[in-house]
Write a structure and sequence with these properties.
2 domains; binds pantoate
């Protein structure tokens, strides 16, 4: 059954009022659309845990540090609604820009510390944009639970921190990254890859797996990292923004996995920025 598409906050509140009164668990899956199986796995997790599920689709201009990226970000609303039909979600919230950021909008939610590294450095302002829109979406949907992919692990930790710091009463669930058969992490931006770039893209994950195997076998992280970057660039990748081992909880930089850690990467391939992370 196709879910109602709601475009106004007032309509959304009218819908959720009874659910809140009845004490129902409301799960929200925030997305920017161009839905793939990674998003759909979040919807499935929300359906399992919650009484009501709202999927939000909003390409949030405040989190794009690059205007070209915002312009080319895929927008596929009709297809997204079709993909969601089989999940029987309770609402799809698709606000316009001026509904989210009306004239005079002047508030920013900013999380310190976790945003001082990786995408916080390479995409200035990105996490302020994410935290601001996610805070709004939590409030607008009256969420009790929210579902995010581990593919954007730094984002997941930033949102967790924000929800905790601001006593939002939202349980933030992290769900495993979903991969294509060849290992490439699913991402809406994969749609922007040319055929040739698409065949090369899984090499990022392959090199990351190689590093993790090397580290587990006692290899020096620095050497493994250097070799992997050289191999990626020889195969056709451009700049590697970062390839770093960091602690799961505070994202502190590690030279050896002496506490629970993940390997994080962001690399450019034919004008598309790919990001990924895996457990060490
Ligand atoms: O991960 C995303 O798609 C976005 O950053 C999010 C969480 C929907 C906020 O715009």
């Amino acid at each position: 059954m196709t879910a109602p598409i709601v475009r106004r906050v007032s309509e959304l509140r009218a819908l959720t009022r009874e659910w809140v009164m009845a004490g129902e668990r409301i799960g929200v899956v925030p997305t920017m659309g161009a839905l793939h199986d990674g998003h759909l796995s979040l919807v499935a997790a929300a359906k399992k845990t919650c009484d009501r599920v709202i999927v939000t689709i909003f390409v949030n201009p405040k989190q794009f540090n690059n205007p070209e990226d915002l312009k080319t970000y895929p927008r596929t609303e009709e297809e997204d609604a079709r993909k969601l039909a089989r999940f029987d979600v309770d609402a799809i919230f698709v606000p316009e820009g001026d509904e989210m950021y009306p004239e005079g909008f002047s508030t920013t939610v900013s999380v310190a510390g976790l945003t001082d590294v990786m995408d916080g450095v390479h995409r200035p302002g990105h996490f302020d944009g994410v935290a601001t829109v996610v805070a709004k979406l939590f409030l607008q949907t009256s969420a009790t639970d929210a579902f995010f992919g581990e593919k954007d692990f730094q984002q997941l930790q930033v949102v967790r921190r924000m929800a905790r710091d601001l006593d939002m009463g939202v349980t933030v669930h992290g769900c495993p990254t979903i991969r294509e058969i060849d290992g490439l992490a699913m991402s809406s931006r994969n749609l922007l890859l040319s055929d040739r770039a698409r065949t090369l893209a899984p090499r990022l994950f392959e090199e990351m797996e190689g590093i993790v195997e090397g580290v587990r076998g006692g290899g020096a992280f620095g050497d493994l990292r250097e070799t992997a970057i050289a191999r990626l660039q020889k195969s056709g990748f451009g700049e590697v923004d970062y390839l770093e081992m960091r602690a799961n909880d505070d994202l502190g930089l590690l030279a050896a996995p002496d506490r629970p850690a993940r390997l994080f990467a962001a690399a450019w391939l034919a004008g598309v920025r790919l990001i990924d992370n895996i457990a060490v």
